[in-house]
Design a protein that fits this description.
Elements (H helix, E strand, L loop, with lengths): L1 E5 L2 E8 L4 E5 L21 E5 L16 H14 L5 E6 L1 H12 L4 E7 L8 H17 L1 H8 L10 H11 L4 H12 L5 H6 L4 E6 L7 H4 L7 E6 L6 H4 L1 H13 L5
Parallel strand pairs: 3-4, 3-5, 5-6, 6-7, 7-8
Antiparallel strand pairs: 1-2, 2-4
Helix pairs in contact: 1-2, 3-4, 3-6
């Protein structure tokens, strides 16, 4: 892992391969390690950068509430520091919310973007309340207890136990204040479905047929011709674990043959 100073914080990242740049953003209580089975299928043809988001993994975890915009600006600072003019930006869950913020404000830096088990919708009132409950659990019971509650619901029923254990192992490394800050960022994010429907950039939308966290209907919010929609059968919210080779191929197909602007 390497690191760079972004918006006053150290952001750690992996940087592998050569070619067109693909940036992968992980989900809540994850890290760049979420993509450890996906990246090997990409780096023969592409340069793949996977940061640990603010508050996650080995990156700094400042105290306080984060914003999705702030986390997107971390990504911009990373691209600037690495002198990368354009990339394909793909985000899983929380990473997808960050991707949409980036695409809304920094579209000129993108060749295309995508959501993996993510959505342009804002939190519902119930979800907003649950974010507060999550913060309470993190603060009162600790990150291990929170991750133990979180992870099982992310996978399709019948997922291999070792996959859940690996996701938990990664999640346990999340600094508690980072998880709390990111939870509040998700709670306050706006509706960004219009970013998907209005863009002329190529867009990839990936859903899991058995995802109970972000259903395909909440991912597929536009039918525009520049949008590629893929549903992976037998997968929940975690195709990076549940079907990594399939996800890697989906990404390669999207980047190799993007819809023309």
């Amino acid at each position: 892992m390497e690191n760079v100073r972004c918006e006053g914080s150290n952001i750690c990242y992996s940087d592998q391969g050569k070619g067109d740049v693909i940036v992968l953003l992980h989900g809540f209580c994850g890290s760049s390690e979420y993509f450890e089975k996906v990246i090997p299928g990409l780096i023969a043809n592409y340069r793949v950068i996977a940061p640990d988001l603010r508050g996650h993994g080995s990156s700094d975890a400042p105290l306080g509430v984060y914003t999705i915009e702030q986390m997107a600006d971390d990504v911009l600072s990373l691209l600037n520091a690495l002198e990368i003019p354009e990339c394909y930006l793909l985000g899983h869950s929380l990473g997808g919310y960050i991707t949409l913020s980036f695409a809304q404000r920094h579209a000129s830096r993108l060749k295309g973007f995508g959501l993996i088990h993510s959505s342009g919708y804002p939190d519902s009132e119930e979800a907003r309340e649950n974010r507060l409950k999550s913060v309470s659990t993190i603060q009162n019971e600790g990150i291990f207890a929170f991750v133990d509650q979180l992870v099982p619901g992310l996978f399709a029923p019948g997922a291999a136990p070792q996959l859940l254990e690996r996701a938990k192992e990664i999640g346990y490394k999340t600094p508690p204040q980072g998880a709390a800050g990111a939870a509040m960022a998700m709670r306050e994010r706006p509706d960004r479905r219009d970013v998907i429907s209005a863009t002329a950039l190529p867009v990839l939308l990936v859903a899991g047929a058995e995802d109970s966290k972000v259903t395909p209907e909440r991912t597929f919010t536009s039918d525009n011709p520049n949008i590629t929609k893929v549903t992976i059968s037998g997968v929940g919210h975690m195709s990076m674990f549940e079907a990594p080779e399939h996800l890697s191929q989906i990404i390669k197909d999207f980047v190799h043959t993007p819809v023309q602007k």
